[in-house]
Amino acid sequence: MNYGKSADKAKAVVAEIEAKGGKALAMQADMSQVADARRLVRDTVQRFARLDILVNNAAISLNKALVETTEQEFDQIFALNTKGPYFAMQEAANISGISGDMREILTAMKQGNSRATLAFDMYVHRLQASIGAMVAVLGGLDALVFTAGVGENSAEVRAAACGKLGFLGLKLDDAANANGLTDADIAIRDSAVRVLIIRAQEDWTIATECW
Questions:
Q1: Nearest 5°: phi and psi at 21?
Q2: Is residue 96 pLDDT above 60, yes or no?
Q3: Helix or strand or coil: residue 77?
Q4: Which of 56, 98, 112, 177 gives the lowest tally of CB atoms within 10 Å of its CB?
Q5: Closest CA to 54 of 78, 89, 82, 29
Q6: Is the pLDDT of residue 55 over 90?
Q7: H or E element that contains 135
Q8: Contacts of 196 (CB under 8 A, 6+ apart)
Q9: pLDDT for res 65
């Protein structure tokens, strides 16, 4: 269990778990820092010799108007709610013996590797959580864009990510998703949300910045 400042409360929770015959470990870490996020996973595996599931449920939000949020505050929220948990999952995937490469995780899943399935489920959970958070902030969703390595090339990730977004009126075209053409709309015609696969052009962005 990770805590930020409340060491006494964390130790009390650990004592309660141990009193009931369980095992627990309280560790202080700043989840907005990648090094701390990785350390949490490593120390947990060292203590218990295994990692069955990783739960990322700690987060912060700002009780202020959207128009008053500063760039620094946004970066802090994003780092704590998204970046830290992402790299914790990456560390867990590496420690558990599954590559951080989604292609290798998918291959291992098809071979029945339970660790790979766990890594995939964790990845999708955080992706859906991030999408949900942005939908709430924006007050809706006009289009969901998948791009870059995983977004462009993994029909499995796209389907899983969209799987719980039906309440938004999003309807994925399974055939178009499986086909995976870039710069294409893979939602069915009457979907309230467009789902796009957009080819990343990092080289073009770099070139324009250097011009």
A1: 90, 5
A2: no
A3: helix
A4: 112
A5: 89
A6: no
A7: helix 114-138
A8: 143, 144, 145, 146, 183, 184, 185, 186
A9: 79
| Residue linked to tokens 């269990």 | 1
- How far apart CA 147 and CA 87 sit, in angstroms, is 20
Whether the pLDDT of residue 155 is over 90: the answer is: yes
Virtual torsion, Cα 194, 179, 86, 206, nearest 10 deg: -80
User: Which residue type does 27 have?
Assistant: M
For the range 70-76, what are the long-range contacts, defined as Cβ-Cβ under 8 Å and sequence gap of 24 or more? 76/32
With left for phi above 0 and alpha for psi between -120 and 50, is residue 115 left, alpha or beta?
alpha
